[in-house]
Amino acid sequence: MSKTLIAAALMGTATLAQAASFALSSPDIKANALIDKKFEFNGFGCSGENKSPALKWSDAPKDTKSFAVTVYDPDAPTGSGWWHWFVINIPATVTELKPDAGNVSGANLPQGAKHVRIDYGVAGWGGVCPPEGDKPHRYIFTVHALKTDKLDIPPDATAALAGFMVNANSIGKASFTAKYGRPKAK
Fold first, then answer.
1. 3-state secondary structure labels for all residues of 155-172
2. Taking a C-beta distance cutoff of 8 angstroms, is the pair 67, 49 a contact?
3. Shortest CA distance to 28 belongs to which of 49, 7, 5, 13?
4. Cβ-Cβ contacts under 8 Å for 79 (sequence gap 6 or more)
5. What would the pLDDT profile of 154-177 be if each residue is shown by its tens digit?
6. Cα–Cα distance for residue pair 143/25, rounded to 1 Å
7. Stretch 67-77: mean pLDDT
8. Which of 69, 71, 94 is nearest to 81 (CA)?
9. How far is the C-alpha of 143 from the C-alpha of 175, rounded, in Å?
10. Distance, CA of 66 to CA of 118 (rounded, Å)
11. CA dihedral angle for residue 10, residue 12, residue 18, residue 19, rounded to 10 degrees
12. pTM of the entire structure?
């Protein structure tokens, strides 16, 4: 095998290894655990604090130019799931979102980052709020490493459009899932 092919193979292995080490975590929500009520929405019969959790990531792919963060409930009884949070244009130098970064004011986001409108109809965090009595829903927290500095999407873009743009520019992602349910009312 030529030195060029060996070098290419080694570079591919290093890239795969780095992509495999890309990780997302939260000091507030543990993977595969139950989400605390304080992250519940405040409305639609839910009465939480509607504040987003802190998120941290590490070992992003080396060619990352920006990040996007999403939180999605595939179990929502809508036929298409439910987007709870969508943040784009997070600079590549940022490796965390602080508690309540999802505040609709945008004041707690890193400079340059912006919220995308979610299924609650707002651009910001929309807390967990599954229907009473449903089995606990899964909430998938994901950080996406992107090959572009900025996604240029309209201010009123839907999460579906933003998702298309994120996936078209993705070079890696890291996720964890946690659950939340509400007991049936008595």
1. CCCCHHHHHHHHHHCEEE
2. no
3. 49
4. none
5. 989 999 999 999 999 999 999 999
6. 10
7. 98
8. 71
9. 6
10. 20
11. -160
12. 0.89
Q: What is the pLDDT of residue 16?
A: 47
Edge-first strand listing for the sheet containing 23-25: 23-25, 55-58, 96-97
Over residues 12-28, the pLDDT tens digits come to 444 444 556 999 999 99
Structure tokens at 95: 């490796």
- Residues with Cβ within 8 Å of 66's Cβ and at least 6 positions away in sequence, in order, are 88, 89, 90, 91, 92, 146, 148, 149, 150, 151
Nearest to 117 by CA among 150, 153, 148, 81: 153
Residue with tokens 């606990």: 136
